[in-house]
Amino acid sequence: MADSFKIDFQAHGSIGTGDLIVFVGENLKPTPAVAKLIGPKAVELIARAAAAENFKGKAKSAMVIVAPSAVAVDRLVVIGAGGEKDRANVDWAQLGGLVASKVNGKSAVAVLDLPGVEITPDDAADVALGAQLRRYSFDRYKTKKDEAKTNGAGGKLSLSVADPTAVKKAYKAREGVAGGITIARDLVNEPPNVLGPREFAAKAEALSKLGVEVEILDEKAMQKLGMRALLGVGQGSTRGSRVAIMRWNGGKATQKPIAFIGKGVVFDSGGISLKPGQGMEDMKGDMAGAACVVGLMHALASRKAKANVVGAIGLVENMPDGSAQRPGDIVTTMSGQTIEIINTDAEGRLVLADVLWYVQDRFKPKFMIDLATLTGAILVALAQEYAGLFSNNDELAQRITAAGQETGERVWRMPLGPEFDKMIDSKFADMKNSSGRHGGSSTAAALLQRFVNDVPWAHLDIAGTAMGSPQNEINKGWSSGWGVRLLDRLVRDHYEG
């Protein structure tokens, strides 16, 4: 959840009396406009303080001058913009996170004027987005709050920009994205005793306030549809499984919808193929794909995206009681295809198999993208730096890759092919849910591909990026909300209007 941190936009000229944040290059000089704003004595003070502090103006470095005599503010915060190469490749959201980290709970003005850089309204809006994301924390279950965080809570950041009206317009869409990321982060961070399939489905239903049509399938409805692969995963839990279908109809009635599908295993013990105890607590995050889809639907509805979008999430708990499915069981999917259970811990693909088939059969989408914390093998291949991308469509894969580069939520395309498909053939059923360690991410994707029925499709394996995420300037928590920015950008760039 975010604190009461506020952001607004103002024209260049006013610096206030709280904190003043300015940027300098490696020559330690601000732009002429900023130099005029703060005055020659302040420019000279920056140079003297930099020499004393060994501050070189490198990218993402910062220096704080408390109670500067040369300008009537509480603190003068100087952030390095780096050299020419750094300034040509600014990640504006990350920069916004850095700026927010320097706000100490009072009012602050950040003058968005970097040496040698032309800042567009979209760039400035991304700075504001990054600032909001940096302020996220999840401490609702702490009875004693972190004093350092509590004392720094709240506050107001005013971004001084060339055209406040244009930046406000650009930021309006970013607010929905920030809200969607916060929802996704909160869902992944929630403890599993609080967030079961039914409670998760209720979070999806809350999107109806934004005009999203939501339909919840219970176990009786899924039995009638024949979703026995999904139901098999959840049969060992006392908490019933659910599927949530979310629809945003912002496009023309004649337009085919685009579809996003999320794996929502609210807790994954591994089932009968029980996981090791060490680190099992992290398996509350095995629903990060579903969390992303809910956050994405919030973002799209909040900014009234001009697209028809379907979001579908399969919500189950994988537990090992006397009713749980066993290795050796064979389940019949909604498609009629059969799957032999080799490993009950390879459960996410069973959930997705039925939901993918349901979505392509009912909605006839233009494309489908699924997100899942599917395999540990993807961490071996890509660590936590990239999500694995598998696709049967080159154009869709290229567009996802480009959106990843633009947002910093990067993907790396991995191989799909007949060799991997052959590896999941079973002696006793149409396929098996695990073929062993070798090529584990590709064989999991190959199984999913058997349920997309030639619809353009991409699978994002986010096991490395969505939970226990790498720390950066816009994420200091355990859950990153990965995928909301990526897919919102994909829709915005290619599938609206």
Automatic annotation (TrEMBL):
InterPro entries: Leucine_aapep/pepB, Macro_dom-like, Peptidase_M17_C, Peptidase_M17_leu_NH2_pept, Peptidase_M17_N. Binds 2 manganese ions per subunit. It is found in: Cytoplasm. Its cofactor is Mn(2+). GO terms for molecular function: manganese ion binding; metalloaminopeptidase activity. It catalyses: Release of an N-terminal amino acid, preferentially leucine, but not glutamic or aspartic acids; Release of an N-terminal amino acid, Xaa-|-Yaa-, in which Xaa is preferably Leu, but may be other amino acids including Pro although not Arg or Lys, and Yaa may be Pro. Amino acid amides and methyl esters are also readily hydrolyzed, but rates on arylamides are exceedingly low. Mn(2+) 1 binds at D268, D345, E347. Keywords: Aminopeptidase, Cytoplasm, Hydrolase, Manganese, Metal-binding, Protease. One of its GO terms (cellular component) is cytoplasm. One of its GO terms (biological process) is proteolysis. Its EC number is 3.4.11.1, 3.4.11.10. It comes from the Bacteria. The active site is at K275, R349. CDD domains: Peptidase_M17 (cd00433). It is an enzyme of class 3 (hydrolase). Residues 343-350 form the Cytosol aminopeptidase domain. Mn(2+) 2 binds at K263, D268, D286, E347. HAMAP family: Cytosol_peptidase_M17. Belongs to the peptidase M17 family. Presumably involved in the processing and regular turnover of intracellular proteins. Catalyzes the removal of unsubstituted N-terminal amino acids from various peptides. This is Probable cytosol aminopeptidase. It comes from Microvirga alba. The lineage of its organism: Bacteria, Pseudomonadati, Pseudomonadota, Alphaproteobacteria, Hyphomicrobiales.
